């Protein structure tokens, strides 16, 4: 159960849509940083990186308000030149929020 103060800017749906993604590394392996610039938690249930015909699963996490989380990209050996992330967040009512974004 979440308690939210009244009058937060935006919505939980918008928070999921506007996550910012960038490449990083963790323990010498490629990883992703998810940056949440909203006042809402974003709960990821599934995520995968796609580059051309290749895809890799991402270990999902909950991204805190105005926070960042580093997520492992399973089996990825090197950062691809061009990639996007497909991720599913869980909305307030348990609904699926399906999103795609380019990774910077």
TrEMBL record:
This protein's UniProt keywords: Chaperone, Periplasm
InterPro entries (UniProt xref): Ig-like_fold, Periplasmic_pilus_chap, Pili_assmbl_chap_C_dom_sf, Pili_assmbl_chaperone_C
Record's GO cellular component terms: periplasmic space
Chaperone as UniProt keyword: yes
Subcellular location(s) per record: Periplasm
Signal peptide coordinates: none
Residue stretches making up the Pili assembly chaperone C-terminal domain: 35-96
Protein family according to the UniProt entry: Belongs to the periplasmic pilus chaperone family.
PANTHER family: FIMBRIAL CHAPERONE YADV-RELATED (PTHR30251:SF2), PILUS ASSEMBLY CHAPERONE (PTHR30251)
Protein name: Putative chaperone protein EcpD
Biological source species: Kluyvera cryocrescens (Kluyvera citrophila)
Taxonomy of the source species: Bacteria, Pseudomonadati, Pseudomonadota, Gammaproteobacteria, Enterobacterales
